[in-house]
């Protein structure tokens, strides 16, 4: 091959590479522009800019924490971060679980735990009678359009048979498209299945929720805890891990078998023992009166989906909030149904906050939202989930080296009595993407809007850049915001 031919081929190859690279850049630009429709950087709600600064209190705290070996401030410990480490169950609890499971073939039970988890993750909200009637009418209209109406010349038994046949067709099709909801009833065996397959997940989620409260409100320590839907007592262990001795735990679950297992775990799996590893725990089958009982912390996980109607769910939320002296924590699965239930409760509570006749029930959304406005993601038909790292139970057949880094998604709501502290109200990070010398952040702002911003090392304040490099989904960005970021709430 001659030198001139090689040179010509080389130029052609370089030209093709340039065209491919240019085309790729154009495609990425188009994709990014379409994505910006959701997160506008030029809207009036664009609060975080290159002029934004980190809160002076946060800077002082970072300087007090010292520097790394390279001389950088320890931004990973800034007040907005909520570390998502693997949460190992307490060793005393693990020992008790192993003893309880000795009489069961754990390896064969793992298949049952997978079935239970799959069922729980795919549960849907009960369909109301009104929705059911509307769907039935739609189906009947389609059948009539295709097959024609019942003849007018039918009388007596023939007319009755024709109507029954139509009802049967409607009911058959209705069963195929409508989720058949029913409340879960846990017997002895299914309660042990829940213990084996779900307790570690529930523990990690609740501990993460409690950690957020503890980190952002360090002066708060609950004197009493009310746990509605306590199941195997996971909330007891998570609260004890974080806050230590608490005066009273009032646990309600309608399953006798769940209450029995929860009590055995506190007795180190020895039913003859009169000593509980955590003191002050009481188990009940029925909930107490909201008027006469108050608790520092009220917790309910995966119980909204157990209520058969919309009115029942709102009544439950109202009762739980009425019993909360300080905080209410609601948790549901990280699914579309779970988010809908949490947002439903959120919308109801924000209405209660503004009701003049319910002044004692006024409060604010503590987490995950930095505002009481309607969730901006709902209008865009997207969901808001939080991730949690789960430490696989060590009693399964999988060895430690084989255990993957398991992430579980959940929807949650933490509500606090009283007015919001403006000084501690920071944007919530919904998504982060770290690149070379810049970080893409999707934020939920205190004004109730979404913002997408790129924090650049050269253009932004160094402390803002350092904090932005250290946040993860669900963390807060501790920056000082303008007054327009804080609408008047509860009015």
UniProtKB/TrEMBL annotation:
The record's subcellular location field reads: Mitochondrion
Classify the source by domain of life.
Eukaryota
The record's section on PANTHER family has:
37S RIBOSOMAL PROTEIN S22, METHYLTRANSFERASE-LIKE PROTEIN 17, MITOCHONDRIAL
**Function description:** Mitochondrial ribosome (mitoribosome) assembly factor. Binds at the interface of the head and body domains of the mitochondrial small ribosomal subunit (mt-SSU), occluding the mRNA channel and preventing compaction of the head domain towards the body. Probable inactive methyltransferase: retains the characteristic folding and ability to bind S-adenosyl-L-methionine, but it probably lost its methyltransferase activity.
User: Native species of this protein?
Assistant: Biomphalaria pfeifferi (Bloodfluke planorb)
Q: What is this protein called?
A: Methyltransferase-like protein 17 mitochondrial
**Where does the signal sequence lie?**
none
A cellular component annotation (GO) from this entry: mitochondrial small ribosomal subunit
* Pfam families xrefs: Rsm22 (PF09243)
Q: Which GO terms describe its biological process?
A: methylation; translation
- Single GO term (MF): structural constituent of ribosome
Alphabetical keyword list: Iron, Iron-sulfur, Metal-binding, Methyltransferase, Mitochondrion, Transferase, Transit peptide
InterPro entries recorded for this chain? Mt_RNA_Methyltransferase (IPR052571), Ribosomal_Rsm22-like (IPR015324), SAM-dependent_MTases_sf (IPR029063)
